[in-house]
TrEMBL record:
The keyword Nucleus applies. Belongs to the ABITRAM family. GO terms for molecular function: actin filament binding; actin monomer binding. PANTHER family: PROTEIN ABITRAM. It is found in: Cell projection, Dendrite; Cell projection, Growth cone; Cell projection, Lamellipodium; Nucleus speckle. This is Protein Abitram. InterPro entries: Abitram, GCV_H/Fam206, Single_hybrid_motif. Keywords: Cell projection, Nucleus. The gene is Fam206a. It comes from the Eukaryota. Gene3D superfamilies: 2.40.50.100.
């Protein structure tokens, strides 16, 4: 029922061979994802995220900055603080140790969220359409 947020294989940071220089969980002057303190079985104190809530900003060596969004409603259980000292694992192991965050959707919403996800085949079709429309 938890959702592990990672970079998609097709994300420009994983495709273009860019070097990640930093990852910043400070979203605004008053909001840092690092200040997320979760306790107990009911995950008290967890920051609540909407689909459009930014999780972090990733800077690359060419000056580009990418904002990574939650894409899912739920409680922020943890952020991957290992990325702060070793941002390269985001590219080296994007779907395992290089995860960005863990989000826990509301129990009632988790089934509809799961049903709304694309299969691997559907995702690849979306990427193909995107590729053809941009060329």
């Amino acid at each position: 029922r938890i959702c592990v947020i990672t970079l998609a294989e097709a994300h420009p940071l994983l495709q273009s061979g860019k070097t990640i220089t930093s990852i910043n969980y400070q979203i605004s002057a008053n909001c840092s994802r690092l200040q997320n303190k979760v306790s107990g079985k009911s995950k008290r104190g967890a920051q609540f995220l909407t689909e459009l809530a930014p999780l972090c900003r990733i800077s690359s060596s060419d000056g580009e900055e990418y904002t990574i969004y939650s894409c899912i409603r739920g409680r922020l259980i943890e952020v991957n603080e290992n990325l702060l000292s070793n941002p390269a694992i985001l590219q080296e192991k994007p779907s395992t140790e290089g995860y960005i965050a863990v989000v826990l959707p509301k129990f009632e919403e988790s089934k509809s969220i799961t049903q709304g996800l694309l299969t691997q085949k559907e995702y690849e079709e979306v990427l193909l359409k995107r590729l053809h429309s941009s060329s």
